[in-house]
Design brief:
This protein has 2 domains: 174 residues, 3-Layer(aba) Sandwich (Rossmann fold), CATH 3.40.50; 89 residues, N-(1-d-carboxylethyl)-l-norvaline Dehydrogenase, domain 2, CATH 1.10.1040. It has 12 helices and 8 strands. Strand 5, helix 5 and strand 6 form a beta-alpha-beta unit.
Length: 306
C-alpha cells in the first residue's frame, strides 16, 4: 500500500489528504498546532459528506485511511511521498525541508505546495535535493485538479516523471513548469488578470460586481473546459494564426496603454469601497458554497462526454 505524509493540516493539507486517501493511499497528516490536528478529522468528514451530496467522489472509506500524526518523524516514517503544506514563508520551508531530508527514507519524493516560492530557494543545501520539487495546487486541490510541477535546476528528471505519474494516478492534472519563475504559471496568469481588473474598476470603467459577472458568466464558462489557446483557435475562421493576424494589433495597443501593474493603493481602495464585504463569520459558509459548486462542476466534467 502506498503511503504519503502531508505536513500541514490547514485547508490545503486537509484537501491533499482527501486526494490521496480517496485514491487508496494511507495518509499521515501532521500539523505543529494541536488545534489543527484535533479539528482535521471533523473538517475532512464534512468535506467528504458535501462532495458525496454533489455526486462527486462518494466516501468509500476515505476518512479511515487518514491518521493524525503528532510529529514530522512519525508522519514521514515509511512514507514514499511527502506533500508539504506549511506557511508561505521561506524560513519555515527551509526548516521543514531540512527535517524531512533527515528523517524520510532516501527514496521518498519531497514536494512543496508553495504558491510562489521556487524550490531552489529552500532545497539547495539539502543532501537529498535531487528528490525535491514544488507541486503547487489550486485551492482546494480535492476539487480543482491542476498541479504545477516546478522542479529546481538540480531536481532529478526521474523524480519529476515519478511525481507526475503519482499525481495522474490520484486523478489530478499535473503540468510541468520548465523553468523556475516566481508564482509559477497559474498565479502569474491570475495576477495579470487581477491587475487589469483592479485597473478597470479603480479607474471607473466598471463596478467590481459587473467585472466578476464578465468572468463567471462570460470568459469563465468557456474556460471551464477550454484554455485560452483553444478559445482563440475557435474565435477566428483560420484558427490561431488568423486570430493573431486580426487581433494582436489591438492587444498590443491595450497592453501598452496602462501601467505595468495596477495594484495601486488607490485602485485597491476603490474596489474595497464598492465591494459588499461579508462579515468574517459568513466566510466559512461562502467557502462551503464554493466547494459544493466546485464539486458539482467537477462531477459534471467527469461525467460529460464529447
Amino acid at each position: 500500500m502506498s503511503s504519503i505524509a502531508v505536513i500541514g493540516a490547514g485547508l490545503i493539507g486537509r484537501a491533499w489528504a482527501i486526494v490521496f486517501a480517496r485514491a487508496g493511499w494511507d495518509v499521515a497528516l501532521y500539523d505543529k498546532f494541536a488545534a489543527a490536528r484535533e479539528q482535521a478529522p471533523l473538517l475532512i468528514a464534512t468535506s467528504l459528506k458535501e462532495m458525496a451530496e454533489q455526486g462527486f467522489s462518494a466516501d468509500t472509506g476515505t476518512a479511515g485511511r487518514i491518521r493524525i500524526s503528532d510529529s514530522i518523524p512519525d508522519a514521514a516514517k515509511g512514507a514514499s511521498f511527502v506533500q508539504e503544506c506549511g506557511p508561505e514563508i521561506l524560513e519555515a520551508k527551509l526548516e521543514i525541508f531540512g527535517e524531512l531530508d533527515r528523517v524520510t527514507p532516501p527514496e521518498a519524493i519531497l514536494v512543496s505546495s508553495s504558491s510562489a516560492i521556487v524550490a531552489s530557494k529552500f532545497t539547495e543545501k539539502l543532501a537529498g535535493r535531487a528528490r525535491c520539487l514544488v507541486a503547487h495546487p489550486v485551492n482546494p486541490p480535492h476539487l480543482v485538479p491542476i498541479v504545477e510541477l516546478a522542479p529546481a535546476p538540480w531536481t532529478s528528471a526521474e523524480v519529476v516523471a515519478n511525481a507526475r505519474a503519482i499525481y495522474e494516478s490520484v486523478k489530478q492534472v499535473p503540468i510541468l513548469v520548465k523553468r523556475e519563475t516566481e508564482g509559477f504559471i497559474l498565479n502569474r496568469l491570475q495576477g495579470a488578470l487581477l491587475s487589469e481588473a483592479f485597473r478597470l474598476v479603480g479607474e471607473g470603467y466598471v463596478s467590481p460586481q459587473d467585472l466578476d459577472k464578465t468572468i463567471k458568466d462570460g470568459l469563465g464558462l468557456r474556460w471551464a473546459f477550454m484554455g485560452p489557446f483553444e478559445t482563440i483557435e475557435l474565435n477566428a475562421p483560420g484558427g490561431i494564426p488568423d486570430y493573431c493576424a486580426r487581433y494582436l494589433g489591438f492587444y498590443r495597443r491595450v497592453l501598452d496603454d496602462p501601467p505595468v501593474s495596477a495594484y495601486t493603493e488607490a485602485n485597491v481602495a476603490n474596489v474595497v469601497a464598492q465591494w459588499d464585504t461579508p462579515p468574517p463569520a459568513e466566510l466559512p459558509k461562502l467557502t462551503r458554497r464554493r466547494d459544493r459548486r466546485l464539486a458539482a462542476l467537477r462531477a459534471h466534467k467527469l461525467g460529460a462526454r464529447d
